Structure to design on (385 residues):
C-alpha cells in the first residue's frame, strides 16, 4: 500500500483557493494586486502601538477560551451602540481566530450527517467545504446579476425536512450587494415554523453605502435563531491579525464553544487586548468606515467610466464587479490570467464562487481597499483595453 493509494480526499473537488493563486501570480508577475481582499494601507497607528505594548507588558499567554472578558464587554458595547441590541458578553459572544474560524466552528457544531444547508450562489469559498466536512449537503439559491437579489420563492422551494441551516452574507462577497429589511423579514417568515438556524456572515457590516443595509442583529426574532459573525480584520484594516467573533444565543454558543475550544482554544492574547483597549478608547472607530470606502469605490468607478468595462452596482464591501463582455470572449479564469500577464492587474474571476456559474457570464471582482494611487494606476491600465 502506498500513502497515495490509501488516501481518500475528504474534499476531492477543492484545490488551492483562488485568493492564494491570484495573489501569488500577482507577486510573480509584478502586477497590481486587486484580487485578494486586503488593504494596502496601514491600520491606525494607535492600534499598532497598543498591540506592541500588550506584547511588551506581558499579555503573552493563553486568554480565556471564550476571549478576553474586556474584549467581549467592548464587543457587547459596540453591538449595543450600532444595533441597539443587548447581548450577554459572557454567554453569547465568543472571540475566534478570524471570521473563518467562527464560520467553521458554527457549521461543525450545528450540521449533522445528511443535513441540508442553504447557500446563496455565488457564495464565499469557505462555506461549502466546511459543510461537506461536517457531513452536510449544500443547496444553493441563485442570485442573478446585476442586482443579485434573493428570490424568496426559489428559496422556500429548496427547504426540506432536512434543512438545518441557512448561510447568509450581507454585505455580500463577491457581489457587493446588500440585503434590505424586507429580505430578513422574508427569510424569517419562511423559516419561523421550522427547526432551522441562520449563520449570518456580516464581516463587511460597517462597509455599506446606503442607509437601508441591514443586520440580523436588528431583527429581534431572527437574531434568537442566528449566529452572527464579525471580523476585526475588515473593520480595522487588519486582515492578518485574524481576530473575529461570533454572537449567538447562549444555547447555541455552548455548542459552538465545544468546537472552538478544540480548533484554536483561544485567539492571540495581545491582539485581543489591543483591540479591547482601542474599542474602549475610540468607541466610534468603525463609524467612518463606510464613508472611507465609499470614497475609494467612487475613485475606482469614476476612473473606469470611459473604459469598455461595465460597472455593476456596488452597495457594500470593498469589492467592485466589472463585466468585460465588450473586451473579451475568454472565460473569467482565463481572462484574469491574461489580465495579470498582459495588463499587470490581478482580479478575481467570479465564477469560482458558484456551484453552477451562469453560462457566458463574464464578470471579475476588483478589491478597492487600496491607496488612491494604486486604484488610479490599475484603472489607467484597464482603461486601455
Ligand atoms: N476574504 C478575502 C477575499 O474575498 C480573502 C481571504 C482569504 O484569502 N482567505 O478576497
Amino acid at each position: 500500500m502506498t500513502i497515495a493509494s490509501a488516501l481518500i480526499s475528504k474534499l476531492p473537488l477543492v484545490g488551492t483557493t483562488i485568493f492564494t493563486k491570484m495573489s501569488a501570480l500577482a507577486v510573480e508577475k509584478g502586477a497590481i494586486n486587486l484580487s485578494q481582499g486586503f488593504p494596502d494601507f496601514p491600520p491606525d497607528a494607535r492600534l499598532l502601538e497598543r498591540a506592541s505594548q500588550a506584547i511588551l507588558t506581558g499579555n503573552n499567554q493563553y486568554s480565556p477560551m471564550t476571549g478576553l472578558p474586556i474584549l467581549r464587554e467592548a464587543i457587547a458595547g459596540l453591538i449595543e451602540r450600532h444595533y441597539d441590541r443587548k447581548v450577554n458578553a459572557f454567554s453569547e459572544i465568543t472571540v475566534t481566530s478570524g471570521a473563518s474560524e467562527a464560520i467553521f466552528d458554527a457549521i461543525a457544531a450545528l450540521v449533522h450527517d445528511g443535513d441540508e444547508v442553504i447557500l446563496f450562489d455565488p457564495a464565499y469559498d469557505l462555506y461549502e467545504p466546511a459543510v461537506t466536512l461536517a457531513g452536510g449537503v449544500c443547496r444553493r439559491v441563485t442570485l442573478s446579476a446585476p442586482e443579485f437579489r434573493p428570490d424568496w420563492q426559489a428559496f422556500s422551494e429548496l427547504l426540506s425536512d432536512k434543512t438545518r441551516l441557512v448561510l447568509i452574507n450581507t454585505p455580500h462577497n463577491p457581489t457587493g450587494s446588500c440585503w434590505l429589511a424586507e429580505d430578513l423579514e422574508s427569510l424569517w417568515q419562511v423559516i419561523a415554523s421550522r427547526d432551522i438556524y441562520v449563520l449570518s456572515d456580516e464581516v463587511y457590516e460597517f462597509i455599506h453605502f446606503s442607509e437601508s443595509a441591514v443586520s440580523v442583529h436588528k431583527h429581534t426574532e431572527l437574531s434568537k435563531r442566528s449566529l452572527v459573525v464579525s471580523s476585526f480584520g475588515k473593520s480595522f484594516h487588519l486582515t492578518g491579525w485574524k481576530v473575529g467573533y461570533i454572537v449567538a444565543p447562549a444555547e447555541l454558543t455552548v455548542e459552538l464553544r465545544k468546537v472552538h475550544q478544540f480548533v484554536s482554544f483561544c485567539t492571540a492574547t495581545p491582539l485581543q487586548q489591543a483591540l479591547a483597549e482601542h474599542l474602549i478608547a475610540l468607541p466610534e472607530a468603525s463609524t467612518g468606515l463606510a464613508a472611507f470606502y465609499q470614497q475609494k469605490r467612487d475613485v475606482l468607478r469614476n476612473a473606469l467610466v470611459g473604459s469598455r468595462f461595465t460597472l455593476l452596482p456596488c452597495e457594500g464591501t470593498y469589492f467592485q464587479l466589472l463585466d468585460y463582455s465588450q473586451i473579451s470572449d475568454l472565460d473569467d479564469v482565463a481572462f484574469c490570467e491574461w489580465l495579470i500577464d498582459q495588463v499587470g492587474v490581478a482580479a478575481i474571476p467570479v465564477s469560482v464562487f458558484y456551484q453552477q456559474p451562469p453560462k457566458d457570464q463574464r464578470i471579475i471582482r476588483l478589491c478597492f481597499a487600496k491607496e488612491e494611487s494604486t486604484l488610479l494606476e490599475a484603472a489607467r491600465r484597464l482603461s486601455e483595453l
In short: Residues 46-281 form a domain with the Aspartate Aminotransferase; domain 2 fold (CATH 3.40.640.10). The chain has a mean pLDDT of 96. The radius of gyration is 21 Å.
